[in-house]
Amino acid sequence: MRASDNKQKNPKIKTFLFFLVLAIIFWFLTKFSKETRSLVTVDLQYINVPSSAILSEKNQKEMKISVVSNGFEILIYALKDARLSIDLSKYRVDANNQIHIAPTEIEALVKDQLDVSSVGNFSTKELVVYLDKTIRKKVPVVLDGVITYKDGFRALEGLQISPDSTIIIGPSEVTAKIDTVFTEKLLLRDLEQSISKSIKLRLPEKHQIILEPKEVSFQLNVEEFTQKSLVIPIDLINLPDSLSVKLIPNEITVNFEVSISNFNNINASNFRLVCDFSEKITEGNLMIPKLVYEPKGIFRVELETKKVEYLIFK
User: Fold this and answer.
1) What pTM was estimated for this model as a whole?
2) What's the CATH number of domain 227-313, 3.30.43.10, 1.10.1040.10, 2.170.120.30, 3.30.565.10?
């Protein structure tokens, strides 16, 4: 009997629950389909800022608005942020770099963008948008990075950045303090081949600064280098006509590193090594050889002989 009673009760419970849920749904639809007044917090988004200005940080970020709409729309606004987009290009900027937007204009924007029946009170009588005058300033770009090379390799020339500068746009009191703009951090290790890529510029801490451009390209020509030695004759300069001088030695071996691709193009004629008689060291009859000219693209240049002797013949 007990099993039979349970079977009879279960359909009744299910039927009751079905009609209960159905009643709740009808109540929900009836309740939320009616228009109701509610206070909505609206995020303010300013667009099309005049090119000669920038938004001030003291501008109002949100506004509380009393609206009349059906319950479903009010529920949607409660579940997600309502946003009001304000096109500043449609308003006049006064002599104080301010834009004044009247309540009637705000009401029209709310009705158009939030799709509400009517708008009541605002948290502010008039919306004032504050603009700061901006200036444009050209500053150099500096790579913020660490670059290392594989043994035997190095950059043929220095790092080439293009463009090598950027335009910063922002309030004068901020831009006046900025002299350089750095790239994002770059880490290149054990390079053995050339590299060319783009890298973004790091925005200064003051977020109201705009950069043009916001990224640059850099190029690094990497080649394999090897050791080379050449014997270079010494030119004696500033010698009086009345004297005859012999240098010992009269030529010096110069050691340097050169790229393999340019190895055969470098010869002794690309160097000039001199001893200046007017700078002679009389004690010990010595002169210091100086390399006054060398070709581009060579590194770690070293003279095997640091001093030369001289003999004077009258």
Assistant:
1) 0.54
2) 2.170.120.30
